[in-house]
Amino acid sequence: MKTLVSVFALLLGAVPLSAQVAYLQDGHADLAIRFSAGVAERLQLAIENDNTGSAYQSNQVVLVVTERSRFELPPETPFGDAGDPLWILPQTQEDDVLFLGFSTESITPGALSGSPLLALKGIDLPGRDLAYEASFFAWQAGQFGSFDVVMDTTDGIDAADQVTLQVPSHAHFNLGFSSAGLWHVTLQAAGVVAGEAATTLGPETTFTFHVLPLNPFEQWQATNWPPSTPRQIIGAEADPDGDRITNEFEYALGLNPNSADASPILAISTRIDGGASVAEITYTRSKSASNVALEIASAETLVDPVWQSSGNVVTVQDNGATETVTVRDPSPVTSTASRFYRLRLTRLGL
Questions:
Q1: What mean pLDDT is predicted for residues 338-344?
Q2: Neighbours of 321 (CB within 10 A)
Q3: Which of 130, 175, 219, 289 is the most exposed place for a label (fewest CB within 10 A)?
């Protein structure tokens, strides 16, 4: 559990992106290596939907790993302890589960000298804290229950995390994810172009997997940004609109993280309570932000301040998607020379 503090501004609303994005959660699709001569990035990666013939760049598609793909590990696998969960996109096709292959079928034979490589370059769960540990695997089932593992992040990511593909070819691997969440998996194609000596590297390309269920913050991220948008923009502590309100607070307060605002989000007034003048602090929060908690904290100085929980909730007004909270500080305003208030956020599993 992590607690942060800040004071912010208010802007409601978010633009859904789901209509602009393809979500693939079943049927046959391929992660395809493509080669185009005469362009700057001759080797490229894309997703091809074999059912419709459509092709997507990485920021146009989400690969969905449904809860149907969740398994508990048996003893003696290289993927974790017995009983640990693992979400698996399978090597063999199953009903109602995405069947994702690796393909070089669009590359003309002879265009490359030798076999291209598909290398793992990174994984991230930008909806989770940076310290959150997760593992990604790619493997094929061998004879007699063996595992031919070609990608395994438990020992880091290095040159061993790659697969060699023939041209033209189409191959399937089991893809394993150790936890639910919004995953970014970054891959890179490499190969030697016919008639050249040096290896040509394609761009590092990040694909988004929704390993279900997403937590509420990850769902909010998916609503506000296209697939493959990096942590530097969509992470909890990022501030892409530059208004000094980090994403986790924008989420908690029902704000728009892509549009800056300068209006204060804390309204402070005074009222008479028991014959004394006391402060009331009002703010609006999102009702769907269930994995964070907000509270008012106060300090008597901004020089080496000691922030303490302050006040009791006296009213909660239902606004539909949001609610307006009023907190009353029981200490009279005359009890100290000065008092400062701020909003404190505690992450609950974020």
A1: 95
A2: 11
A3: 130
